[in-house]
Amino acid sequence: MVGFDTIDIAATGYGGYAAMLHDCTDNIVASGQLIGALQSVVSRAPVPQSPAVLSVRPVHAGDVYNLIPETVRLAGGTRYFHEAVKARLQKRTTEICEGIATQQKVAGADAVNDDQNPSMASEDFAVMLEQAPGAYIWLGNGPVSGFGARHTPRDDFNDVVLRGIDRGAKGMKACRGGAR
């Protein structure tokens, strides 16, 4: 019988809105690279006379169409006949995981720039503007560090922002020329 080890990997970074990939770490891309690289472990690491198997299954990467998840979970296993092959499989798997994590900056929030730059976000409001003049204004949600950014797994609306809505409405009215 062969030996069997399990593989459990969590590629964790900073999730985000799919239209704002520059504001997150794309764990999906990192996981795809990881799966591809792990497939080379068996063909390159063990000696040909000592067969081995490394398989990645299942992969879980969130449930929402337009969000990059914070964590992608990969699982799988290795099979081998010799302890030396087991050790080589473990060593190469660890090296590949660390290398791709470094390359893809799948390291957490310290790899993310929270500055607000122009956005590729889309909104149905653009369709309304085709019919009538108007403006779309972002009032903001406060610092991202205290609350999750919009459209992320940590999204948490900052209720304190509601105090500024009246001020924002007065500002819009003033722009229109009807301030009182």
UniProtKB/TrEMBL annotation:
Domain of life: Bacteria
Keyword Hydrolase applies: yes
Alphabetically ordered keywords of this record: Hydrolase
Gene3D superfamilies: 3.30.70.360, Zn peptidases (3.40.630.10)
InterPro entries listed in its UniProt record: Amidohydrolase, Bact_exopeptidase_dim_dom
GO MF entry, a single one: hydrolase activity
This protein's name: Hippurate hydrolase
Lineage per the UniProt record: Bacteria, Pseudomonadati, Pseudomonadota, Alphaproteobacteria, Rhodobacterales
